[in-house]
Amino acid sequence: MVESALKLERARYERSALVEWLTTVDHKKIGILYFWTSIVFLLIAGFLALLIRTQLIVPENTFLGPETYNQVFTMHGTMMVFFVGMPLNAAFFNFFVPLMIGARDVAFPRLNAFSYWAFLLGSLLMLSGFLFGAAPDGGWFGYANLTSSKLYSPGLNIDFWVMGLQVLGVASLASALNFFVTIVNMRAPGMSLMRMPVFVWMTLITAILILLAFPSLTVGLVMIMFDRYFGTNFFNPAAGGDPVIWQHLFWIFGHPEVYILILPPMGMISEILPTFSRKPLFGYTFVVFAGMGIAFLSFGVWAHHMFAVGMGPVPNAVFATTTMLIAIPTGVKIFNWLGTLWGGSIRMTTALLFAATFISMFTIGGISGVMHASVPIDYWQTDSYFVVAHFHYVLFGGLVFAVLAATYYWFPKMFGRMLDERLGKLHFVLTLIGFNLTFFPMHFLGIDGMPRRIYTYSAGMGWDLWNLVISIGGYLTALSFLVFLYNVVRTFQRPADAPADPWDGRTLEWSIPSPPPAHNFDVVPVVRGRDAFWIEKYGAEEVVGPTPERHGPPTGGSPQRPHNPDPGQHAGHGPSTPSGHGGQAHIHLPPPSWFPLSTAIGLTLMGTGMVMHASDTLGSLGFPVVGLGIAVVVVSLLGWTFEPIHEEAHA
Amino acid sequence: MGKGRLWKRSLRAGVLTLLAVAFTGCAIGNGPQSVNRPAGDSMRKIWDLFLPIFWLSVVIFVLVTAILLFALWRFRQRPGEDRHPEQLHGNTRLEIAWTMAPAVILAIIAVPTLSLIFELDRKPGPEALTVRAIGHQWWWEFQYPELNVVTANELHLVVDRPVRIELHSVDVIHSFWVPRLAGKRDVIPGWNNVLTFTPQEVGVFPGQCAEFCGIQHANMKFTVVVQTQEEFDAWIRQQQQPAAEVPADPLAAQGRELFLTPANACMGCHTVAGTEAQGKVGPDLTHVGSRGIIAGGMLENTPENLARWLRNPQAVKPGNKMVLPRQLTDQEIQALVAYLTSLK
Questions:
Q1: pLDDT, tens digit, 9 for 90 and up, residues A13-53
Q2: Residue B279 to residue B268: CA distance in whole angstroms
Q3: Any B CB within 8 A of A279 CB
Q4: Mean of pLDDT values over B72-94
Q5: Pairing assessment for the beta strands B185-187 and B139-144 based on DSSP bridges
Q6: In which domain, by residue range, is B282 found?
Q7: Interface pTM, i.e. ipTM
Q8: B270 and B197, same structural domain?
Q9: Option in B68, B117, B171 nearest A359 (CB)
Q10: What is the DSSP string of A116-171?
Q11: What percent of chain A clears pLDDT 90, i.e. is strictly above it?
């Protein structure tokens, strides 16, 4: 009986590779999908950046016209935030959060797959604007009433932007809910909140931020949609509307969004620095609470993007103060990272170099952020290249450096292969030089009064030299990414021979083989303290907190033997690993499903139909396509609801 | 070893880059929009607030980076070494110290910041000049309501006399920015923003729109001409006169004819005071011949540029709102240029 059931199961799983990837609900596979998709988008958005830099390399250049340039800079910003930054973080959430908390998957595996497909299809919907020469052109911030009025944005450009972002917003919200529930409910026995790795903490805080911030964007986008499609006047001053309302709605989302982007990288740094210093994170509690403090404050600072709007001195003074307060928890984090390195035994791996450089580069971005918090200074710096320098130091010097560190760090666990360290260091050096050459001189352009988002400038403004230097820096940065890609390709040509624990890691993902088996843990681990795996390897001087007890149904493992303590030894694959008691392992793995993909397709069809409705030629097809999309969503959700969830083996 | 050499090489490259930056330091701050040479009270106060914060920032950055580099060097794992560092979890006293330190620094920054916010917002005295700046996609209209003068793209101000600029927009959000004189203030349709400052130097100061406002945001520029009171009064007297008479030059007279022919559509958008041309969509051209720039500050006001513009405005400034009902002939363009340059 059992055997035939297992055979049946195997038949279910033996599908073509394509079908397997399309229907997977495995958090690791979804993480890998997120990873490669956002790397591809990173290359596209980086290419757009090169177009920008080529246009600005000399004054009065005619390489791109204004129409193209505006589409290019809009899509560069929108993509880097929504198609690259957030999904790169999500790639690591997906792959590593369940592993780090000792879970077999996320709380809602099919919802997780849905998040990915909605992200991919929503991104493609927006990108497809390029095919029609109508990519979004209102800036990533899409200020009304330029964007909300058909008078000022007559084309489909903004419609692609609004509909694409709405689909992406659904994806982000679903994903945030999923990770919130996963982290709250699915931790292994003994993994109390204050024993969670900081990366998991930052994921939890990020999920809360997404849940609270994205609705504001959604509401704003709905208002733009209504103004454009149905003739409402939310942002139309001639009819009593006010375009500044959009700015409030956008930045109530937009500033927490900055922390949605940067808190997970801070978590990555907080994992990588301890591993390569062979020391625990300095001041764990303070780093965690600093993250919470940043998240809390991030909802009270949005108007610092609007100091020049003319809100009056009192609101400006209030928002200046709250903004400055954010520098305190940020400073605490930086000092704790330095404290982590101090006294350690530091291995100069590529991951460590990127992570350590993050501290220094992020400090530059943080300090110039304090300058902007000073309202009068912001009257000058806002919308000038000084601000462009600032947020690239935060997002490139911060997010990208951290994600590259995390890539070198976690690549062996994800793919079972070690990236080449020599090429990695070349990549690091090129990135460090290219990045600073690109973005540091933007401060000078800010001093020389060059505004943002201009497609051309005249000679004689004193901007020629630095624009040339910046463009050269941009090309160098692009070259550094080519080195990275070469490294990746070469690594995949080599055998998959990464050990389970190549870096002498501290957290649970290193206790299982590289890459991990489908069910992650043969036996759900029991956590006896922070740096759970380190304690198992080397023992703790003192184990703080209560001794864990095993909750829930018995998993067949004995609590005294939490998981494989030998880093080099690969644990056996398959669900029937003997547990030491000779009992049958009772591992529940959700079966693959088509419904997440089909739901995402339906949702994207709805967005596509709305864009079609606004077009001249396909207008009449618009609402039918929306209807079709709704039907697909409804049918998919019904199928999703009644889809049987198989238990793989019944003991 | 190999790794160490690579590390050193990158360090050397970094130092070289820094040196190169230092040597080219003279290439910063010499432009016509460079804020480090303030020519107005408002920007001067902003720059004076910025400098100490900047030096404080340099100190913090150098400190953090020095600690970082020292830690990386001092605690690096030597080849063959298998040190097991003490598993130190933290130090509450240190935590309190480095929570307090940024708080104190921020307090030091906050006090002058807050006081300057209110200072910059102070209302000017009765001697202030009032100007209305109106943002259009993609040019600036300037009105002197008390003096009955309307002009475009060129704002005249009086040195050492405070100015009160009322900011309006007829379409989308713009932002009024003259970098050497003052900070930005957004120009929002439906809002009545006011920007106040005092120019302190005679000269010509370029400014431009600082809020993305559509396809030609880059070419929404203007100049501010700061003059002595006498020069300003003379300029006002000249601007107050209508340009009614038919010019003596026959070519210019022909241009006037063309301009005032309704089928040519010029007068549908443009005003020339004293004639039937009373359009309000495009710039007032009553004294266009006296201005230094045209086309939203994109071109110098020369006969060649005017001709270029009239031949095909969409080729010169793609997307701008000026659409000719038909292609003008070269002869017509010459006539129109002669007429427009005669409007002093």
A1: 566 889 999 999 999 999 999 999 999 999 999 999 999 99
A2: 5
A3: yes
A4: 88
A5: unpaired
A6: 250-342
A7: 0.91
A8: no
A9: B68
A10: HHHHHHHHHHHHGGGGGT----STTTT-TTTTT-TTT--SSHHHHHHHHHHHHHHH
A11: 85
Q: Are residues B236 and B135 in the same domain?
A: yes
Domain boundaries, chain A: 1-25+593-651, 26-493
The segment with the largest mean pLDDT, out of A564-568, A577-581, A598-602, is A598-602
> Which tens digit of pLDDT belongs to each residue from A310-326?
999 999 999 999 999 99
User: Does the beta carbon of B327 lie under 8 angstroms from any beta carbon of chain A?
Assistant: no
Among the candidates B181, B216, B240, a domain finishes at B240
Number of domains, chain B: 2
Alpha-carbon gap, residue A609 to A156, rounded angstroms: 12
Q: Are residues B235 and B134 in the same domain?
A: yes
In angstroms, the CA A164 to CA A118 distance is 10
Query: In the block, which residue shows the tokens 């949609």?
Result: A225
Question: Is residue B5 assigned to a domain?
Answer: no
Q: Do B186 and A310 touch (CB under 8 A)?
A: yes
Contact assignment for B183 to A376 by CB distance below 8 Å: yes
CA–CA separation, B43 and B50 (whole Å): 10
Q: What is the DSSP string of A416-435?
A: S-PPPHHHHHHHHHHHHHHH
Burial label for A269, CB within 10 Å (0-12, 13-18, 19+), is buried
For residue B19, how far is the Cα from the chain centroid?
31
Give this prediction's pTM.
0.91
Over residues A404-428, mean pLDDT? 96
Residues B138 and B233 in one domain: yes
CATH 3.90.1440.10 holds for A26-493: no
CB-closest option in A280, A328, A377 to B50? A377
CATH of the domain at B206: 2.60.40.420
Q: With an 8 Å Cβ cutoff, is A455 touching chain B?
A: yes
Q: Could you check whether the bond before residue B139 is cis, i.e. omega within 30 degrees of 0?
A: no
Per-residue confidence band for A563, with pLDDT thresholds at 50, 70 and 90: very low
User: Considering chain A, what is the average pLDDT of its residues?
Assistant: 90
Closest CA to A269 of A391, A195, A362, A370: A362
Q: Looking at the predicted structure, is the pLDDT value of residue B120 above 50?
A: yes
Tell me the residues of chain B between 257 and 296 that have a Cβ less than 8 Å away from chain A: none
Residue A355 with chain B: CB contacts under 8 Å = none
